[in-house]
Amino acid sequence: MPLGCVPGVAAAVALVLCAYGVERAAESSAAAPVPARNTAAHTAPRPPIVPREVWVGDARREQPPPRYDDKVIAVFVHHTDSPNDYDCAEAPAQIRNLYEGQTSARDWDDIGYNFLVDRCGTIYEGRAGGPGRPVTGAHTLGFNHRTTGIAALGTFTAGVPVPPAMERAIAELAAWKLGMSGTDPRSDVRLVSSNGGSRYAVGATAMLPALAGHSDGFMTSCPGAALQARLPRIREMAAELQDRRPDAERRQEQQEKAQAENSRIAGAAR
Prior knowledge:
Blueprint: E1 31-32, H1 53-56, E2 74-79, H2 91-105, E3 115-117, E4 123-125, E5 147-152, H3 164-179, E6 188-192, E7 205-209, E8 211-213, H4 214-217, H5 225-241, H6 247-269
Parallel strand pairs: 2-5, 2-8, 3-5
Antiparallel strand pairs: 1-6, 3-4, 6-7
Helix pairs in contact: 3-5
């Protein structure tokens, strides 16, 4: 069942899901990271994460056991297409509405997103299975394997400011999850599409950013133009949290090495 961005304040039965692009997590695909940039292990600390028990409350329903991949090599960022003027204390209720809309109105087995982040920078566990494990999500049609889905609570279309605390929390979460597989948040990775409803045919290999927007894998406006435009900075923040060199410094080092190698070759040829 496709889903992309979900309003979080309407009653569960009347919930209208705003974009397509999320599917049940029973897909089968293979993916392998591209050794672009530095593939040495760089880890980041786990940020504080509010457990799902805080928001699910009595809305909990029976569901099958979680499904897992071998690791996470990419992150897809979403927005929930819901109002931005909420009080952060209301975030658990908004997440519960999302959950009820997906599990009741759509008859999904769980919320599709692995994590959700509110405008104050609080990170919430979404889909069940354990925040530290590579849980197969249901957030990006065709690319739910070896990825994790992070949803920003709100609507971030063109001109809407993205709260700095939210950006920072997304970067911290991405740095931690990608660090477990040694993936540089600024790199590109190979993912294999498992659904032709994505931007890629079934079985096609896609080169996508390790920290991508929903629209990179599916035809949608999610995560909104404003949040999509902030992804380069979020990638840099995540890389810094993994103790990686800034892009400019890394490029300069590569250029110096190339110049030294060219000089060595030229000298040997004399």
